[in-house]
Amino acid sequence: MKIALIAEHTAPLAAHRGEPTCGDSVHVASLSRHLAKLGHRVTVYARKSTSDPVGRSRMGRGVHAEILAAGPDRPLGEHEEADHTGAFATALTGALKDDAPDVVHALGWTSGLAALSAVHGAGGLGEVPVVQTFHSLNATEQRAGLPERPERVRLEAAIAGRADAVAVSSADLRFELARMGLPRHRVAVVPFGVDTDHFSVEGGAATEPWSPRRQDRTRVITVSGPASGGPERLIESMVRLPDAELLVVAAAPLEVALDEDARRLELLAKEAGVDDRVHLMGPVERKELPRLLRSADIFVSADRYDPYGGAVLEAMACGLPVVARAAGGPTGAVLDRTTGLLLRSARPDTLARAVRGMMNEATTRSAHGIAGADRARSRFTWQRVAAETERVYRTALPGGDGLPLAVGDDAH
């Protein structure tokens, strides 16, 4: 098949090079590479937001990125996401008309708007099926305490209704779409993946350039954005964990010394009297991240909402037991009390109690790590995610019959 992956707000070339990027960028780079390994030709269409040039660039055998000019040449804030989607849709219409695909696959709601406009608008591609993937929905975000965005809720329901097939990354999202009126049989659960060749229990543990580890302390690690809420709660929980140290790794590009949220976290650690046990790091290149993860004893995800669960899967693949808030991607990745702990609340006292329990039970901690690595290898490889995505494409093509049982449906 000739596949067009529409990923408006991603940096596919940066992700392909292994640079720190967002979850959507990791997804599109990994998925496109493994779809190509299945024999397909893939083009990723994204809006120019980095120094990468406008136009077509090769990402690997069978995979190209097409960077389209639409709006400012920088990443957009959440409330700017849709401001330039009209311009992106116009550019996309011309690009798809010049290189018509067999299937169009949109990642995220603004990409879905652009894809439906390009296919069903003036581009004359009305027979090409559109597959829509949601990693998150505003309705589920609201339940996690994030702001309500009524216009986005309406548009997400409309996009799901118009798409020829819909994939979501968790059973929770499929349930939410059913509440919006989309029949469950029209939605496949295809989760986020992990590169288990790169993230694994094999290999050494890094110690530099961050502070050397104290052998008498348990190392807790998180990969998160400074403004996500998770690092703040973890720093506050360290007051109750005097025998632990915390390593906070930025999930996206930033300069810790200049970032206001990172500075706020440093001040919080100092005021709490735990700054000697809390280490804030900038983003780490993906080639180095497994060694950093393996240097820790416990991985914690305490963000208000994590739509992907990618960092959790990477930690599991490296053999770390996980403590995670049950919101978003981690709910499908972590098996409670088998690969780690899922918490309804991420209050500092709740986090401290869960982490302390793992610190005190070395046998249980080891068992969770072994089970997590096995689960990552058996359920969440990008090879399997690509195969399930291919099956969704085939159901959307003329003559396709019904969505398949996807990875997430039998993950438990």
Automatic annotation (TrEMBL):
One of its GO terms (molecular function) is glycosyltransferase activity. Its EC number is 2.4.-.-. SUPFAM superfamilies: UDP-Glycosyltransferase/glycogen phosphorylase (SSF53756). Keywords: Glycosyltransferase, Transferase. PANTHER family: SULFOQUINOVOSYL TRANSFERASE SQD2 (PTHR45947:SF3). This is Glycosyltransferase. It comes from Nocardiopsis endophytica. The keyword DNA-binding does not apply. It is an enzyme of class 2 (transferase). Residues 230-367 form the Glycosyl transferase family domain. Residues 25-197 form the Glycosyltransferase subfamily 4-like N-terminal domain. InterPro entries: Glyco_trans_1, Glyco_trans_4-like_N, Glycosyltransferase_grp1.
